[in-house]
Amino acid sequence: MRRTAPQNPTDYLPITFPTLMLGVFFVIPFGLMVMVSFFKRVQGGFYEPSFTLANYARFLSPFFAEMLVFSLGLAALVSICCLCLGVPFTYRLTRLSRRAQVLWLIGLLGVLSLSEVIIGFAWSTLLSRTAGLSNLFVWLGLMDKPVAWTPSFAAVLTGLVYQAFPYTVLVLYPAFSRLDPSLMEAARTLGASPVRGFLNVVLPAMRKTLLATFIIVFIFALGAYLLPQILGRPQHWTLSVLVTDQAIYQSNMPFAAAMAVFLVFASLVLVAISGQINRRGGGS
Amino acid sequence: MTKDNRSTFSRRSFLAASTAGVSMLAMPSVLRAQDRSIKVGVYGGYFKDSFDKHIFPKFTEETGIAVESVAEPTGEAWLVQLEQAARAGAAPADLSMMSQVAMLKGQSTELWAPIDMSKITNAGDVLPQFLNKYPDGRVAGVGAVAWYINLVSNTEAYPEAPESWALMWDPANEGKLGLLALVSNSFLLEVTAKTFFGGTGILDTEEGILKVMDKLAELKPNVQLWYRDEAQFEQALKSGEIPMGQYYHDVTGLAAADGFPVRSTFPKEGGILDSGCWALSRASDKVDEAHVFIDFMTRPEMQSLMSLKVGTAPTLKRDVLALTDEEFASVSSSIDPIVPRYDLYTSKADWLNQKWTELIVG
């Protein structure tokens, strides 16, 4: 592998195609969205080209501020849950035999092949009163009568964590499998218990990976719009649900675009802040 | 040796033939490139299946025009797609079945090509409320079918059929209801106005609408599910998970006929009467075929067939239809229906949507 900087135009050739794709399928659509967010909404019709800040002004209200805070909070909570489950899981996984690791990873990749709709409906059945898990608990004598656990905040959270968990493991896995086992051995030799060694040595060494995983899952969860609808009550709907409502059901593209731009902006700011914290906290 | 040769030959020819066959199937347009065809959008799922099975083949058989049916999403999602496509000069479907709110929104941007009623044989029999017109009198859409949104219930959870929409406010029904999530497709403002305020006249002013919304807020504890996706509520209603709510009369009737413990009731205040029009995208070049299609679909015998097979209410005058009273009663009712205030969803669309979202989310 060559590590020198590109010398002449032909050296850029290998990255031309990805750059082109990124431009056509990301930069241009995003630019169009920003453009539409300044267009004028025609009520009872569609929209017309113009330059207005009215769509952003409508967003700046306590109602949408609360929605934004809820969406960001939910996404952060999903990330935290995924990390709490994913980190010990991945650490244990990398200590298993090669064969077992492959089987586990295939299983996790299998989950990724499920569509959001199927995940949503499966969980809503599992958590339902008539056919759900609570019937099993009643049969086991743990509960008096079956109850509906969906729609609820816990159901939304469960669905989102389930959906994001494979991504968490897949992002953590390479770093954990490269982790030098001598770190843990040294900690144990110096008298640390396995748990203490894990918390005080392994986790700090993994700080950057953990932050990267947090951000990926956070952004993934921020875009969720189906699971909150299927598993939640209206107060658990995220901003993405309202963006969909405006774009698809109210044919209000400019307002939907303005909300989407705001959402992207808010998540970029959070990513920048966490990057800053990481740099300062990292020291080296 | 000979045998081997022959088998190789036949296998090869089989492969070639099946490749050709598969590619022909993959591109149906190639098969009937010479023929006339039209793309028709109808609501996906049960609706489209019934049309594909009972209605479109008859049309193709008689006129030789092939129908390529397109599953359209409910609500205004399809309108947005048609609108975006028309701006680019494309039509994902030539004709589409559009609900009233979407019709009106499309009319305001001249999305629909005008229909020449002189080419429609039974034009005079279409009930006037099912003809959508531009302000200058051109026809934007012709009534395809009408449908009712009724009070539905699970017969195991509710042995007695509910009689009134007011039952939805009963504190005994806490956590039992499934209602449509959007102001412009649930028509719950009209239901509340007619049930508690003597009619939809109160919705003329913003103060009146807010009063109706206050009344509507009282039933929030009873609502277990605000649905956008119909399948979600249908499933829950059948299983009894959510034993009551508002739903389409036609689909509920079919589910009951399949043996599920569900029923649809026309409450004493009336069912909600909504309708769909055939509307032609201005980007379509199949104007002639579209007129032939509308002409065919507005025949009394086709309207009757749709009532019997799809469960929708006819858009033609009662006296030209060959339906028996019993058949007619199964798809319609003599109780004065709740007619949605479509004007609100265009003139006050954004204000209503904002207040509604705050009402159900808050």
TrEMBL record, chain A:
CDD domains: TM_PBP2. It is found in: Cell membrane. The keyword Cell membrane applies. It is a multi-pass membrane protein. InterPro entries: MetI-like, MetI-like_sf. Coiled coil: none annotated. It comes from the Bacteria. Its main location: membrane. The chain crosses the membrane at residues 12-39, 59-90, 102-127, 147-173, 210-231, 251-273. Residues 68-274 form the ABC transmembrane type-1 domain. Keywords: Cell membrane, Membrane, Transmembrane, Transmembrane helix, Transport. Belongs to the binding-protein-dependent transport system permease family. CysTW subfamily. PANTHER family: INNER MEMBRANE ABC TRANSPORTER PERMEASE PROTEIN YDCU-RELATED, INNER MEMBRANE ABC TRANSPORTER PERMEASE PROTEIN YDCU-RELATED-RELATED. This is ABC transporter permease. It comes from Roseibium polysiphoniae.
TrEMBL record, chain B:
Gene3D superfamilies: Periplasmic binding protein-like II (3.40.190.10). InterPro entries: SBP (IPR006059), TAT_signal (IPR006311). Keywords: Periplasm, Signal. It comes from the Bacteria. PROSITE patterns: TAT. This is Extracellular solute-binding protein. It comes from Roseibium polysiphoniae. The lineage of its organism: Bacteria, Pseudomonadati, Pseudomonadota, Alphaproteobacteria, Hyphomicrobiales.
